[in-house]
């Protein structure tokens, strides 16, 4: 008994040391421009640290198009401790990842009584390259934080099942709620608890299914509330893509393909990137049918073995079910899939495969030795790949350049690299990257906007005006303070802000080209949306002064 105890302690220590060593490079990485700005360094509610006003803001406002107050508070605490030193923020992510690894091992080994199988699953979770995005990206605090509460919920639930105590039931509800307030991804956890009731907890032997479902009603209710809130928030912010832009057939075929991609990348985690462009209906019918057959065959096989090998069905359904909120049926963003979405779902696949292998008889010592060597080599290979993948997150240039290298026609990565280079004053490189982005995706309004800004920085007024003309609707000659119907295209906050800034910037370019009347109309258009916009007011005053001087000059020349 004492020997087993020390063996478990050793497993914790080894998992912690190896995981820290593999993720150590992120402690030297910078923030990146994708989301880290709005989540952390450009958000005054975050950078000013932890105080009552900021905590109230976190619970009563939307943060970066999401409602996750605990995640926001964790970023505030980081700024309180580390200011804007990136290494500190990355360290917090790593600490949560270490804690999640230890919790996963503890929960699995407690529920199943299988120490080595649980340790291997925890090691796969800790070292798999697909989890780098969730840990190395400061903005993905919501992943590691919500997973922390997910695993605490499982732990509290296990104690509840063992002790039949209302106290542990309430504790389970509390940790689940905290997880939902970290990231809505936990909406599927009640379903996972039902899966755990079947295996490994085997509660169906003593409790009727309808009672187990009734037991989860408060959890399902909380999930429903958070799902509705999240959908309404993201729709209001304009990041839930409408059916016109992403027809349901596109979403469905991409969802089916993405499931298979996630399985493939679990076994072959190469060419990983921060962004994978949505195929937008270009997936062939043959590809879709093949993916459906693969998913159907695995599902049927797992369900057929549910009595003899229940972990197969439980692990597979865990994987399939927990991906539902992010599989793209409700399209959020412009990606087809994302590495970060596998942080929790992969646990199901890890359990299914590990238990399947461990259940193969290995009475012969040589076979046990083979299993041990193979497991060691596999984990070593994954660790090396994860270490290398962490280094791609060093800064904007390495991150976006890598995405361009490994994902064909990655218009998004070209665009973000261009914007990042522009902010560093490398305008020629920025212009080249943005033009490549538009060559691949010519209907991307944000890239025209960024290219126009680069042209402004370079003083190329003609190119800036040309870009803004592609981005902005034309205005009638008699624009006053009346509503311009063209602005209805920009109802969402992000597009609205871009529209306002584009009008202001275009007015500046038009002013420098001497096109004062057109510039005046653009300033008025911005003022219609924001009547107290000082930049527009100042611009109009300057235009009036320039027009007055121009008129005086003409009169003087005429005389």
Structure, explained:
This protein is mainly alpha-helical and 559 residues long. The protein is 70% helix and 0% strand. The chain is built from 26 helices and no strands.
Question: How would you describe this structure in keywords?
Answer:
mainly alpha; 26 helices
Give a concise summary.
The chain is mostly helical and 559 residues long.
User: Whole-number radius of gyration?
Assistant: 27 Å
User: What share of the residues lie within helices?
Assistant: 55-70%
- Tell me the strand percentage band: under 5%
Count every helix, treating DSSP H or I runs of 4 or more residues as helices: 26
Element pattern in H and E: HHHHHHHHHHHHHHHHHHHHHHHHHH
Structural class of the helix and strand makeup?
mainly alpha
Q: Which parts are unreliable, with pLDDT below 50 for 5 consecutive residues or more?
A: 481-491
Largest sheet: none
Shape: elongated
Number of DSSP E strands: 0
Intertermini distance: 108 Å
Average of the residue pLDDT scores: 91
How would you classify the quaternary structure? single chain
């Amino acid at each position: 008994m004492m020997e087993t105890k020390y063996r478990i302690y050793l497993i914790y220590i080894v998992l912690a040391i190896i995981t820290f060593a593999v993720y150590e490079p992120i402690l030297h990485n910078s923030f990146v421009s994708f989301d880290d700005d709005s989540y952390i360094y450009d958000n005054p509610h975050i950078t000013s640290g932890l105080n009552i006003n900021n905590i109230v803001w976190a619970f009563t406002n939307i943060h970066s198009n999401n409602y996750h107050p605990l995640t926001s508070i964790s970023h505030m605490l980081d700024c309180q401790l580390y200011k804007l030193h990136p290494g500190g923020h990355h360290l917090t992510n790593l600490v949560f990842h270490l804690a999640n690894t230890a919790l996963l091992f503890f929960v699995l080994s407690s529920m199943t009584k299988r120490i080595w199988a649980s340790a291997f699953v925890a090691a796969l979770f800790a070292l798999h390259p697909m989890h780098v995005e969730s840990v190395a990206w400061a903005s993905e605090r919501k992943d590691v934080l919500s997973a922390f509460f997910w695993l605490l919920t499982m732990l509290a639930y296990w104690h509840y099942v063992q002790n039949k105590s209302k106290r542990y039931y309430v504790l389970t509800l509390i940790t689940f709620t905290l997880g939902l307030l970290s990231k809505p991804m936990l909406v599927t956890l009640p379903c996972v608890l039902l899966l755990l009731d079947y295996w490994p907890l085997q509660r169906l032997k003593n409790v009727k299914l309808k009672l187990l479902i009734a037991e989860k009603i408060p959890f399902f209710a909380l999930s429903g509330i958070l799902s509705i809130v999240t959908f309404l928030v993201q729709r209001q912010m304009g990041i839930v893509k409408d059916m016109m832009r992403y027809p349901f057939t596109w979403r469905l075929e991409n969802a089916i393909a993405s499931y298979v991609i996630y399985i493939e990348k679990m076994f072959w985690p190469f060419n990983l990137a921060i962004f994978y462009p949505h195929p937008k209906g270009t997936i062939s019918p043959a590809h879709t049918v093949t993916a459906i057959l693969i998913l159907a065959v695995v599902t049927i096989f797992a369900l057929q073995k549910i009595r003899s090998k229940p972990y197969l069905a439980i692990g597979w359904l865990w994987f399939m079910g927990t991906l539902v909120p992010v599989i793209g049926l409700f399209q959020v963003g412009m990606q087809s899939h994302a590495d970060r979405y596998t942080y929790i779902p992969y646990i199901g696949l890890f359990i299914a495969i590990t238990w399947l292998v461990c259940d193969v008889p290995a009475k012969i010592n040589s076979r046990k030795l083979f299993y041990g060597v193979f497991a060691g080599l596999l984990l070593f290979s994954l660790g090396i790949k994860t270490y290398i993948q962490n280094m791609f997150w060093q800064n904007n240039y390495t991150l976006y350049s890598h995405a361009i290298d490994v994902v064909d026609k990655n218009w998004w990565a070209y665009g973000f690299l261009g914007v990042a280079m522009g902010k560093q004053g490398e305008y020629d490189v920025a212009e080249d990257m943005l033009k490549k982005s538009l060559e691949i995706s010519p209907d991307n309004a944000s890239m025209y906007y960024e290219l126009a800004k680069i042209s402004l920085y370079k003083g190329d007024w003609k190119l800036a005006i040309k870009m803004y003309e592609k981005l902005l609707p034309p205005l009638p000659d008699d624009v006053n303070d009346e509503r311009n119907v063209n602005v209805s295209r920009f109802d969402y906050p992000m597009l609205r802000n871009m529209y306002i800034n584009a009008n202001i910037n275009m007015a500046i370019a038009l002013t420098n080209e001497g096109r004062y009347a057109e510039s005046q109309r653009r300033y008025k258009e911005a003022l219609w949306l924001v009547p107290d916009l000082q930049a527009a007011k100042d611009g109009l005053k300057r235009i009036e002064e320039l027009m007055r001087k121009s008129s005086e000059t003409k009169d003087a020349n005429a005389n």
